Amino acid sequence: MLGEPGAHGELYRSRLCDRLGAAQALKNGAHSEGWVRATRKPGVVCCARFALSLQWLAFHSPPQWGAFMKTDIHSTSRLRRDPLVRGLGWASALLGVPQVVAPAGFARALGVGDAFRHRSATTAVGVRELAAATGLLGRPHPAWLWGRVGGDLMDLTMLTRALKHHNGRGLGRTVAATAAVTAITATDVYAAVTRTRRSAMELTAATTVSRPPDEVYALWKDLERLPDFMAHLEEVRVTGPRTSHWRASAPFGKTVEWDAETTQEVTDRLITWRSVDGADIDNSGEVRFEPAPGGRGTEIRVTLRYDLPGGALGQAAARYFGEEPHQQLDDDLRRFKQIAETGEVVRSEGAPGGKRARGEFPQHPARPLTEGELKEALA
Prior knowledge:
Layout: H1 7-27, H2 33-38, H3 42-60, H4 62-69, E1 71-73, H5 76-81, H6 83-101, H7 103-110, H8 116-138, H9 142-164, H10 171-194, E2 196-198, E3 201-209, H11 213-221, E4 233-238, E5 243-249, E6 255-266, E7 270-275, E8 282-291, E9 298-307, H12 311-316, H13 318-321, H14 325-342, H15 371-378
Helix pairs in contact: 3-8, 3-9, 6-7, 6-8, 7-8, 8-9, 9-10
C-alpha cells in the first residue's frame, strides 16, 4: 500500500520505467502511440478474453459449449470438409506464423512501429491465430469461428485506436490493414452464423372438421394436395411408397427444396414425416386425427418442427416463419377445413385465381382487377 515504507519509491520507479519504455519505443521507431494505448484499454482486454474463452471452451468441451449456445451443432466431419472453414483455418495459420516468428517486422508492416509493446501485442495476436488454426483444421467447431469473430473485434479496436493517435508515418499501411481486417470480420461473422444451427422452431395448431376421421385422414394423406391449403408450399411430388419431394417458396423469388419420408402411419389416427439428409431446411411433422366429442367430426392436431440455420438459409425460410408463423399455420388449417367440408377454399370475389392456396397471396382489398386478373377470373 502507499502508506507502507518504500511504497512511494516503488511508485516512482514504476512511472520512471514507463517513461523510459516510451522513450525507447520512440527510439525504436514507434509510429503510433495509439497501438500501445490500445493494448492497455479495458475494451481490448474484454475482446481478447472473449476470443480466448471461446477458443478454450471449443477445445475442452464442445458438447457443453454447444448446449450453452443453445444450438444444434454441425457434425465435426461436415465442418472438416467445409471449404470456407478450412480456408479460414489456413488463413489463421498464415497470419499467425509471421506474427509469432517475426513480430517486429509484422508490426512495422502494419505501420505501427516495432516497440516492445507492439511486438508483445503482435505476438499475442499471432498465438491467438495459431490457436484458431489448430482448432479449425484439427477439431472444427463453430466456437472456433466465433472465437475468430472476437479476435477480429480486438484487432479492429487496436487498429482504430492506432489510427486515432497515429503520427502519420506508415499511416497508409495502417489504413489498409484496418480495411483488410474489416473484410475478414465480415467473412468470419458470415461463417460463424451460417455454420451454427439455431434451436428448432416448433409450431402447433388444431381445428375441428365436420367430417369423419377416415375421410379427413385420406385427404391429408394425399400429399400432392397439400399445396392446395398450405400457403408456403409450391409443390409436393410423391416419389415412392414412403418418400416425396417438397418445394416451398422463399424470398426474392427463390425456392427451397427437400426430400421427405413418411416415418409412421396409423390408419385414421396418425401421420408423421421428416426430411432426409441434405435438405435445404431440416424439418419434421406429425398430424393426429381424433374423433371429436359428441360426434361432431374430427379433431386435427398438427405439429411442425423446423431446424433453421442462420444466414442465407434462415432468410430463405423467412416467407413462412417471418410473419406470425403460428397464425400462418392456423390459416393453413382453416383452408384445409374448408376443403374437407366444402371441397374448395372459400374465397372472396375480389381474389381471383385457382383454388391452390398460393393463389390467395397477395390479396388487395378494395382495388379494381387488372386486365390480366380479369382474364384469369373469366377463364
